[in-house]
Amino acid sequence: MIDMKVTMLGTGTSYPDPDRVQSGILIELEETSILFDIGAGVYHRLIQAGADLESISSIFITHFHIDHCSDFLMLCQNLWLGGHDKPMKIYGPPTIKQWYRGIFDIAFPYAQNRLMLNVRVLKEHEAVQTGEAIISNVPTIHGTMETRALRIEWKGQSLAYSSDTAPCRDVIDLAKGVDVLIHECNWMDGPNPEGVHTTPSQLAEIVEEVAPKKLVLTHVSPEVVDKKKKVLEIINRRTNAEVVMAEDLMSFEI
Length: 254
Prior knowledge:
Blueprint: E1 5-10, E2 24-28, E3 33-38, H1 42-48, E4 56-60, H2 72-81, E5 88-92, H3 96-107, E6 117-121, E7 127-130, E8 133-139, E9 148-154, E10 157-161, H4 169-175, E11 180-184, H5 200-210, E12 214-218, H6 222-226, H7 228-236, E13 242-245, E14 250-253
Parallel strand pairs: 3-4, 4-5, 5-6, 10-11, 11-12, 12-13
Antiparallel strand pairs: 1-2, 1-14, 2-3, 7-8, 8-9, 9-10
Helix pairs in contact: 5-7
């Protein structure tokens, strides 16, 4: 059986980190490739990974904080310069059309009609199909920003991506039983703003309930990275799943 290949293009946050760019995940399937988020530095990571840009048929932007979408225009410019002539679907929360019009009208008007981009609102709990893959979504809890968590299923293989979220019942239910859960761990336990991000102890409770085969931590701040050993110890107390802290360009198959 052909496996789903996952490359963690960007695993950092908005905080500067010399080793980590912002959020982006490449999922390569037999017939197509899909991007989950495309923050600053992700286009460069795509090139470093040797990704086939022509194979990308869909991009899912989970929300419009700049660390999840800022390299979209860079990708479009380089696809245009390379003569890209294949359709590509761009999914995101309801503000996606306003965001898309704004960046193209101001920064890239001469190429707006030269790429075959189909921009679509990803409604809450909607499932969409890309090739043989089914991608479903739920809203997360991330301050006032409307954000989507994603689950992809393809030929019996499954992966869930939390995007940015505080502990969220909808995200837990979406992810239950997946092969791989990719979940943010933005900051350490302690006094933090409520309803924005997830800590190691909170993630330990989440993974215990979701019961994935593998947990991949992403969106990790420099503080979390510096305390990697402690973070993994906290989570491993509550799960028998394989637990890893992602690094940029790390790849694995499901």
